[in-house]
Amino acid sequence: MGRNEPGRPDATCGAVSPPPGASEILGLEVSGTIVEKGARVDGFDVGQQVCALLAGGGYAEDVVVHQAQVLSLPQGYGLREAAALPEVFATAWLNLFMEGRCGRESACCCMPGQVVWERQPSSSVVPSGIPAS
Question: What is the pTM of this model?
C-alpha cells in the first residue's frame, strides 16, 4: 500500500510543492457543512454534512471543491471522524481495485477468497482496505 506522500517530513517542511493550480495552504482532507453549491451540482444539498479530498487548502476556513471529490458522511460518523476518511479510503481503493485489479477476472491479481498481503501494518490505509476487499 502507498503512503500519504504530502504527510512525509520532507513534504511538510516545504520540499514538496502543491500541484499546479492548487492552494498554497496546507490540508488535503476536510469535513464540514455545505453552505453553497453550483447550479449543476447533483446529489448534495446546502446544509448537508460532507467530507472531501482536496489538492490543497484544507486548512482554510472555507473551501471550494468539485462534487466528484465530495462524500456524504457515513452513518454514525461525525465531522471529526469523517475528515480522516477521504485520503485513506481513496488510497485503499486505488491500490486494491485500480492498481491491484482485485475482482477483475480478465487481468486480476486476486479473486474472492484469496489473500491480499498489505505492507505497512501501522498505516491507516491497511485497515481501511479490509472492508473494501
Answer: 0.67
